[in-house]
Specification:
The complex is a heterodimer of chains A (234) and B (264). Chain A has 234 residues and is α/β, with parallel strands linked by helices. Chain A contains 8 helices and 10 strands. Helix content of chain A is 37%, strand content 28%. Chain B is an all-alpha fold and 264 residues long. The structure holds adenosine-5'-triphosphate and magnesium ion (MG).
Chain lengths: 234, 264
């Protein structure tokens, strides 16, 4: 049995009378690649926002790397990386500067900052473009920079909200290659959301299909017929 | 993990300067903004100031009217630039930038004060512009280095104050349209209910009371004393500084509480 790094119990979020996430219960093991699949409005982003301490839950609880999202938010924040659904790097800074500011905010030791940044740039294939303004980057480069930025401090869990949306198949493969490398090198747990069954199928260890705020199906592989059915009907 | 223990206060100060540093780095390509910002103080001093100075309508004691309003126009242009600073944060929220910072362990107060302080340093351009115009118009400026330093500090503090206020508005209204609306509604009353272009002594009682609750009045008072030779302070420099610093502290505190609302 591996260690549980993410433990979600009855996690609920209401917006007025509307329940966006409805008593979600899940656990994810350390080093796992876990996909949350669901159509628009299923509650994927709301779930990630609660797990990253951006949105307080209406009910329920979750522990990330052992820290409670409600009472130990700073501990959670130190242990995670987050790539939001929308673009999250700053176009008016260079790629290098976008990394440098996060190296400083996460208290990376001074001596290590430059080496870490150089390594991250190399790893994400961005070394040649490090000194360019991010406003000039392509969509694929932006996503790779975002992943570099959110993993600079070697988080235990990396949350990615639709990491490959809007990318062409080649850029998509490049992003996944880097993510899988990340897990192999640092044991990072990946928790990501997607609309695409094929993407979840080819990269996840396990996945959950979310519908109307609830887990409609959970399994190790989409070849599982119940999952197929759930994916087809939702 | 590699994080070492860092005292909360040192951490807070360090992170504030990190945020400020990178906010300022973003300005490198923004020369057009500098030019457009020079326009408003130029209009006020060259047109409004000259006309009213000629008419002799304002009684400003031994100080010529143009000299009297030069610090007022500096305060006003700092206010106008800083009060719209928060729009940047709405841009960053519409992307995912604010969310990413909020998911990091950076203290919320450092995110707010760091941005406020960068508004403060950005507004030093207004000091240069207003000093240049004043020189051109023959305003008798005080060139004592200590007085200059005092003006510099007040300008930074004032813009930090109004920049932080602007961030608070952004956290509450969350959209660009509403933000611009609120900003426009607030600037004129703040400006006119102050001692920027006329002394409070000529105001009706109710306006005078309001002007004494307006932080801009204390900013103008502090600037007027340091910028001009031989202009005594109405409230005294310590009260001016106390009001400005206390207001900023309260605003940073409120801003830190409201900032996470941008993520939801
Ligand atoms: N701040 C909010 N106020 C009110 N309703 C909200 C808010 N945020 C999300 N919702 C609602 O909650 C539901 C779930 O939204 P969420 O963004 O979590 O879906 P999602 O699965 O990420 O969808 P998508 O695939 O489109 O990104 C939606 O119906 C949405 O309208
Ligand atoms: Mg979403």
């Amino acid at each position: 049995m591996s260690d549980i790094v993410l433990e979600i119990k009855n996690l609920t979020r209401r917006f007025g009378a509307f329940t966006a996430v409805d008593a979600l219960t899940l656990s994810v093991n350390a080093g796992e690649v876990f996909g949350l699949l669901g159509s628009n409005g299923a509650g994927k982003t709301t779930t990630i926002k609660m797990l990253t301490t951006l949105l307080p839950p209406s009910a329920g609880e979750a522990r990330v790397a052992g820290f409670s999202i409600t009472t130990q938010a700073v501990g959670v924040r130190r242990a995670i990386g987050y790539v939001p659904q929308a673009v999250s790097v700053d176009g008016s800074l260079t790629g290098y500067e976008n990394l440098l500011i996060f190296a400083k905010l996460y208290d990376l030791p001074h001596r290590e900052q430059q080496a870490r940044i150089a390594e991250a740039l190399e790893f994400m294939n961005l070394t040649a473009d490090a000194k360019r303004l991010v406003a000039e980057y392509s969509g694929g480069m932006v996503r790779r920079l975002e992943i570099a930025q959110s993993t600079l401090h070697r988080p235990k869990v990396l949350f990615l909200d639709e990491p490959t949306v809007g990318l062409d198949p080649i850029a998509r493969d490049a992003v996944w290659k880097h993510l899988i490398n990340m897990r192999a090198n640092y044991g990072t747990t990946l928790f990501f959301t997607t609309h695409y069954l094929e993407e979840a199928e080819s990269h996840c260890d396990r996945m959950a299909i979310m519908h109307l705020g609830k887990v409609a199906a959970l399994g190790t592989s989409a070849k599982n017929s119940r999952l197929r059915l759930a994916a087809a009907t939702h | 993990m590699t994080a070492t223990f860092i005292h909360p206060l040192t951490g807070f100060i360090e992170k504030t300067f990190v945020i400020t540093e990178f906010e300022l780095r973003k300005l490198r390509h923004d020369f057009t903004e500098l030019i457009t910002r020079a326009l408003q103080p130029a209009l006020w001093l060259l047109i409004f100031g000259q006309v009213f100075a000629r008419s002799g309508a304002m009684h400003t004691g031994n100080i010529p009217y143009l000299d009297f309003i030069a610090p007022g126009i500096l305060a006003q242009s700092v206010l106008f630039v800083a009060i719209f600073y928060g729009i940047n944060v709405i841009w960053e929220r519409d992307l995912g930038i604010v969310q990413k910072f909020l998911a990091s362990p950076t203290p919320r107060a450092a995110l707010v004060l760091g941005k406020g302080l960068s508004a403060g340093i950005r507004s030093l351009s207004q000091m240069v512009i207003v000093y240049g115009l004043s020189l051109l118009l023959g305003v008798k400026l005080n060139w004592n280095p200590l007085a200059l330093l005092n003006v510099l500090v007040i300008v930074i503090l004032a813009a930090t104050l109004f920049g932080t206020f602007s961030l608070i508005i952004a956290c509450i209204v969350k959209t660009r349209e509403r933000f611009m609306g609120v900003g426009q509604v607030l600037t004129m009353p703040l400006f006119f209910a102050s001692n920027a272009i006329y002394p409070t002594t000529i105001m009706p009682g109710w306006l005078k009371t309001i002007s004494h609750l307006n932080p801009l009045t204390y900013v103008v008072d502090a600037l007027r004393t340091s910028m001009l030779a031989g202009s005594p302070s109405t409230f005294g420099p310590s009260l001016d500084y106390a009001v400005i610093l206390l207001t900023t502290t309260i605003l940073v505190f409120i801003g830190a509480r409201l900032y996470p609302r941008l993520a939801s």
